């Protein structure tokens, strides 16, 4: 529990001192649905022919969509969030390889009868679109899988893994740039391909691994300046059988968007994941992109 509170406190300390624009007006029932949906396309290309100084020809592109849909209905507030992203990278004579891949959906239903502390039911799902490969696998990394020298190894696919969560708890929601939630939750790790199950902590015959525990999350959506926006989500799940001897499963997603013009922006995305069932090390993904974005809603 102390570890969870320390992580969430660190996130709020990092962003609270920044000077920000005014918070958006509180949502009311008369507003109906408050919806925001944006799409972004980003890419880069480099080509060389008889270039004496050397270089590697590359082609990369990423497409993503983000949406938030929320409304007040009587004493209840419901919120839907979705993010879809996919990107490919090609280097020199190599085939296209996946650079970005995410499907994420979250739903929250909050009862607003007690002020800013609101009983909440949340549901979440996260997986990917396409297969993922390790292009230089070793037997030490994948002791349960056959390794063929010089060949890539398939390590993931749609629904392998997929993470599902259901939580009943309370949310601190002051109608500002941050919210915090904690509660009792259930987490399912789904791995639809049997040979990949040991990579994600499932038994060979265990398509779905179910854990019960403490689930918590802090979200930040902060306008740091007129053209700079920080979106951050820090989530942690502490299974009851891990209390006292393991760090909780943690995922910290951060997106910093710097608007250059009405449609052109620079986006820095950093995601860190720690799940001891998958790896003893912290997993890190960083994506820096320049692209165009436009509002869908």
N-to-C SSE series?
HEEEEEEEEEEEEEE
Main sheet, how many strands, which sense, barrel?
12 strands, antiparallel, barrel
N-end to C-end Cα span? 39 Å
Q: Percent of residues in beta strands? A: over 45%
What would you say the CATH architecture is?
Beta Barrel
Walk me through the structure:
By secondary structure, the protein is mainly beta. It has one domain: Outer membrane phospholipase (ompla), Chain C (Beta Barrel). 5% of the residues lie in helices and 56% in strands. The strands form two sheets. It has a twelve-stranded antiparallel β-barrel with strand order 1-2-3-4-5-8-9-10-11-12-13-14. A hairpin with a 5-residue loop joins β8 and β9 (178-190). It is flat and about 65 Å long. The model is unreliable at 1-5 (pLDDT under 50).
Quick synopsis:
By secondary structure, this protein is mostly beta strands. The protein has one helix at 2-15; strands at 34-46, 58-73, 76-91, 97-111, 117-127, 132-134, 153-156, 162-172, 178-190, 208-225, 228-239, 249-259, 264-274, 283-295. It has one domain: Outer membrane phospholipase (ompla), Chain C (Beta Barrel), CATH 2.40.230.
